[in-house]
Specification:
The protein has 6 helices and 8 strands, in the order βββαβααβαββαβα. It has helices at 40-51, 70-78, 82-98, 111-122, 163-176, 209-227; strands at 3-8, 14-20, 28-32, 55-59, 104-109, 128-132, 150-155, 180-185. It has an 8-stranded mixed sheet, with helices on both faces. Strand 3, helix 1 (40-51) and strand 4 form a beta-alpha-beta unit.
Length: 228
C-alpha cells in the first residue's frame, strides 16, 4: 500500500500526492489521473507500477477532490489549469522522484494522457512518456520540444478522442522527429480502467482485460528499456 506525501512545485508551493514506493534505487513514474481525480483506481495503478519495480507518484491535481459522477468530473477538469498542472504539479512530482537519483517517466490516462504529452514538451527532466488514450488540442502542443521517447495506446472506437485526432497527432510527432511508438486497439475509451464495466461505466467507456494486459506488457517493457 502507498501513502500520502508532500512535494514542492518549482514555484515553491506544496502539493500532496500518492506515493507507491518500490524501494531505494528504483526508477520512478509520475502517474497522472483521469478526470475522476486521485481515486482508488488510480492509486491502484501506482501500486501496480510499484509491484513491477517502479516507484510511482500521483500528484493530487484536484487538491483532495474526486468524483464518480461524469458531470462533476467534467466540472473539475474544466477548472484545471492544464499549463500550470504540467509545468508545476507534474514537474514538481518529476523533480521529487529525480531527487532519489533515478530516471523518471510520466504516464497518464485520458485527461492524464493529454497532460503527459504537455509535460513531455514542457518538463525537461522527463526521461520517457506513456500515454493512454488522451491528447490535448494540437495547437497547444509543441512536438519539437519532446525529447524523451514516447509510447502511446489508442482505442480505435474511442468516443472521447476520435482516431482521426490521433492521426493528426502522429503526423505532428513524425514531422518533429519524435521517438514515438503508437499502438492501436479495437477497443473503446478507458479500455485499461477496470472500473469501466457494469453499471459503473459511462456510455463511451468499456474495460477490455485482454487489450489492457497487452498494453501494460508493452508499457512495462518500454519503461524497463528506457528507465533501467
Amino acid at each position: 500500500m502507498g501513502s500520502t506525501v508532500q512535494f514542492q512545485r518549482p514555484d515553491g508551493q506544496t502539493v500532496n500526492g500518492y506515493l507507491a514506493d518500490a524501494g531505494a534505487g528504483t526508477p520512478g513514474v509520475v502517474v497522472i489521473q483521469e478526470w475522476w481525480g486521485l481515486n482508488p483506481q488510480i492509486r491502484g495503478v501506482a501500486e501496480r507500477l510499484a509491484e513491477a519495480g517502479f516507484t510511482a507518484l500521483v500528484p493530487d491535481l484536484y487538491r483532495g477532490k474526486s468524483t464518480v459522477e461524469a458531470e462533476e468530473a467534467h466540472h473539475l477538469m474544466s477548472g484545471l489549469d492544464f499549463a500550470d498542472a504540467a509545468t508545476q504539479d507534474v514537474r514538481g512530482a518529476v523533480q521529487h522522484l529525480k531527487a532519489r537519483g533515478s530516471k523518471v517517466a510520466v504516464s497518464g490516462f485520458c485527461m492524464g494522457g493529454a497532460l503527459t504529452l504537455l509535460a513531455l514538451a514542457k518538463v525537461p527532466e522527463v526521461d520517457a512518456g506513456v500515454v493512454w488514450y488522451g491528447l490535448p488540442p494540437l495547437d497547444y502542443l509543441d512536438a519539437t520540444q519532446i525529447k524523451a521517447p514516447l509510447i502511446a495506446h489508442w482505442a480505435t472506437q474511442d468516443g472521447a478522442f476520435p482516431i482521426a485526432s490521433v492521426d493528426a497527432l502522429e503526423d505532428k510527432l513524425r514531422a518533429a522527429g519524435t521517438r514515438y511508438t503508437g499502438h492501436r486497439y479495437l477497443a473503446h475509451h478507458a479500455f485499461a480502467n477496470e472500473t469501466a464495466q457494469g453499471h459503473q461505466r459511462i456510455a463511451i467507456t468499456q474495460y477490455d482485460a485482454a487489450w489492457a494486459q497487452l498494453a501494460w506488457d508493452r508499457s512495462f517493457a518500454f519503461l524497463g528499456r528506457h528507465l533501467g
